């Protein structure tokens, strides 16, 4: 028996979500305007999403969640990011809609999240992964990513990073760098551009080749 499960997600208006998902590479397969607005989208390979319109719906209060398991989260992220940059001129990293960068979290392989204009979360993952012990700051980063990217609690994630950096002040620059970059991203998400610039200034002089793409995106956000 073949089974396909397709989530139906809420939004305030179908035209809020349609351009966003077209940018992600989806295509419209069906649309009903009334009496009940309904939209069907497909990206192929079993990646289908449906939406229903509720004019009184508040995206800030959305509880819509979809877990999407793929073989390579990096490839899908690159495709999504390219589409969003083309449509928006830059990646939406804060507010609604937004996308997070692929990173490991506690209990999962490297993945990322997309929050659509309806406030619905697409949680892209390669499935569970054995974390292993990891270094002390790697464990801090995993915990922070769980708070900031999985739970959407930027304040808690910032607190985790700041506490970890204080506790492990003897860490090497290479160990501290991923935490500082993520900290800059998180404070930017909260709307504190000045603090994000201050964190990036702390990074100056370090070997940033391993995080060059992330830094370039953050600097682009701060100059636009």
Would you give an account of this structure?
This protein is of the alpha+beta class. It is 42% helix and 20% strand. The chain has seven helices and nine strands, in the order βαββββαββββααααα. It has helices spanning 14-23, 73-88, 136-150, 154-167, 173-189, 193-203, 212-223; strands at residues 8-11, 27-32, 38-42, 48-53, 65-69, 98-99, 103-105, 108-115, 121-125. Strands 5, 6, 7, 8 and 9 form a five-stranded mixed beta sheet that branches. A hairpin with a 5-residue loop joins β8 (108-115) and β9. α3 (136-150) runs antiparallel to α4 (154-167), α4 packs antiparallel against α5 and α5 packs antiparallel against α6. The radius of gyration is 19 Å and the shape is elongated.
Order of helices and strands: EHEEEEHEEEEHHHHH
Query: Structural class, judged by helices and strands?
Result: alpha+beta
Mean pLDDT: 89
Number of strands: 9
Low-confidence residue ranges: none
Supply the number of helical segments: 7
Distance between the termini: 52 Å
Q: Give the percentage of residues in beta strands.
A: 15-25%
Helix content: 40-55%
Q: Compute the gyration radius: what is it?
A: 19 Å
Shape: elongated
Main sheet record: 5 strands, mixed
């Amino acid at each position: 028996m073949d089974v396909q499960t397709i989530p139906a997600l809420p939004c305030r208006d179908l035209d809020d979500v349609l351009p966003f998902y077209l940018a992600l590479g989806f295509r419209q397969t069906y649309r009903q305007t009334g009496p009940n607005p309904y939209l069907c989208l497909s990206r192929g390979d079993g990646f289908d999403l449906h939406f229903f319109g509720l004019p009184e719906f508040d995206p800030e209060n959305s509880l819509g969640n979809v877990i999407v398991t793929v073989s390579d989260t990096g490839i899908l992220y690159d495709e999504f990011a390219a589409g969003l940059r083309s449509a928006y001129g830059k990646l939406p990293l804060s507010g609604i809609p937004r996308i997070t960068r692929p990173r490991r979290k506690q209990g999962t392989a490297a993945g990322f999240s997309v929050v659509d204009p309806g406030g619905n979360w697409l949680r892209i993952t390669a499935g569970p992964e054995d974390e292993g012990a990891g270094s002390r700051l790697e464990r801090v980063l995993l915990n922070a990513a769980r708070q900031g990217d999985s739970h959407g609690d930027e304040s808690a994630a910032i607190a985790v990073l700041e506490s970890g950096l204080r506790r492990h002040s003897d860490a090497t620059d290479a160990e501290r760098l991923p935490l500082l970059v993520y900290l800059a991203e998180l404070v930017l998400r909260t709307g504190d551009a000045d603090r994000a610039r201050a964190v990036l200034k702390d990074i100056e002089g370090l070997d940033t080749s391993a995080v060059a793409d992330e830094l370039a995106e953050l600097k682009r956000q701060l100059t636009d």
